Amino acid sequence: MIFRKIIVVAATAVIPLATMTAIPANAAPSLNWQPCGTIGAQCATLSVPLDWAHPNGVTINLALSKLPAADPSQRAGELLFNPGGPGGGGAETVEYGGNQFPAQLRDRFDLIGFDPRGVGRSTPTISCTQPPFDLSVTQFPATQAQFDRLVAHNRALGEDCLRQTGPLLGHLDTISVAHDLDAIRVALGESKITFLGLSYGTLIGNIYAHLYPQRVRAMVLDGPLNHTIGSARMVADENSAAEVTLQHFFQAIPGTQATFGRMLGRLSDADAEVVLQGVYEYLNLTSYWPQLATALQQAADGDTSMLVDAADNGPNSPDDPTHVAGNQAFLAIGCQDFPSQVHTFGQLRAQMTQAARTAPDMAGHEESWLLQAGCIGWPVPAQDPWQPVPVHGTPPILIVAGRYDPATPYPWGVGLARQISGSILLTRSTDGHTGFYNDPCSVQQEADYLVDPRKRPSGC
């Protein structure tokens, strides 16, 4: 197999978690908050080092937002929030959607959203001229030639992103983001953080707690990732979990399984890659299941637009320019933290066969496959490869895991709980990705705990 020349970013050796530069526990606040948005939020920017191994070098800017506590008389501090990703920004979520948080949190906390480095309004931003996903390049290659084309596409994309983005592309790892989070804590003037992380945000919280255990007041990790499992198990677990959720959807809305079958019968392999990704996106929010039923019916009648739009709003956006930046960030960050461990066509083909056998309907068309296939040949070395992230010395951290979460399967939550000493595992039995977006009971338990970390969840 002939690959393009690998471009090596300066200072891209993998840095062990424990050796990164730490920030002093106390420093003066340094944020200039200005009004923004439509619901009374404030916005600011914070400069942090591009490379935390060289804290006095080049800096980058993080975008922050704050929605002050609705009831100042009950204010308990500041709650930092990350909605997930990789590539998701929290600044806009708080700026425009902060009122969607439960009143218990809105009343007592200043909500703090932040766009991780390279994401959203943080600058510089991840930039590429090529689309991250190309419908003419299958992520499910049936031949060696197709596999070679996939690898060449990934390498060319990474080289293009490196030219356009510059050195930032080699410093998008979540270890760096965790250090950024502590810089935000310092700028806020807080001695400890209260943190709510969803999905990818759980990895940010996990690494932060590993690096700064004494600086955690309370932390909720909802929809947890497990950074030890490797790319093959990541794909296998998520594929099986998504299949179970799809079957639950079929049971919840009669007739949809037959409609799903009729839809697949109309699709080419290339179209199926996008359409099934759209199905997966809908499965993550149970409140959207009625729309998924409508989308399937339309697709069975020949109109796949709803499902293609859903895929465009997710990581796999082959041709919609309004979502290209988010999809570039998904891949550029994801390849830093979840690098593909596939090196040959035979290895990928074996996983395709397993995916089709264990989940005949979804057959691997989920988020994790986009990283497994999309990171093969990525030219920027992973700064935060698969490795354990043990946590000791924090107050009890609340981990919320769903038995039927299609994006972060339940075993990941169990595995993460074993790595965090003294953690509390709250198990929910509802469908959908994260309890925060799908399960009122989980939301209530999370809010109770964040207000008073001594309170233990009563179960859901």
Features:
single chain, alpha/beta, 13% strand, globular
Q: How many individual β-strands?
A: 9
- Residues in helix, %: 40-55%
N/C terminus separation:
52 Å
- Provide the spatial order of strands within the biggest beta sheet: 1-2-3-5-4-6-7-8-9
Biggest β-sheet strands, sense, barrel? 9 strands, mixed
Poorly predicted sequence stretches spanning 5 or more consecutive residues? 1-15, 315-324
- Helix-strand sequence: EEEEHHEHHEHEHHHHHHHHEHEH
Number of helices: 15
Q: Approximately what portion of the residues adopt beta-strand conformation? A: 5-15%
**Cα-based radius of gyration, to the nearest Å:** 21 Å
Shape: globular
- Please tell me the overall pLDDT: 91
What class do helices, strands and sheet pairing give? alpha/beta
Note down, in words, how this protein is organized.
By secondary structure, this protein is an alpha/beta fold. It has helices at residues 91-97, 103-108, 144-165, 174-188, 200-211, 230-252, 256-266, 269-283, 289-300, 305-313, 324-337, 345-358, 367-374, 410-419, 440-451, and strands at residues 34-36, 41-49, 59-67, 77-82, 109-115, 193-198, 216-222, 398-404, 424-431. The radius of gyration is 21 Å and the shape is globular.
Fold topology:
Blueprint: E1 34-36, E2 41-49, E3 59-67, E4 77-82, H1 91-97, H2 103-108, E5 109-115, H3 144-165, H4 174-188, E6 193-198, H5 200-211, E7 216-222, H6 230-252, H7 256-266, H8 269-283, H9 289-300, H10 305-313, H11 324-337, H12 345-358, H13 367-374, E8 398-404, H14 410-419, E9 424-431, H15 440-451
Parallel strand pairs: 4-5, 4-6, 6-7, 7-8, 8-9
Antiparallel strand pairs: 1-2, 2-3, 3-5
Helix pairs in contact: 4-5, 6-12, 6-13, 7-9, 8-10
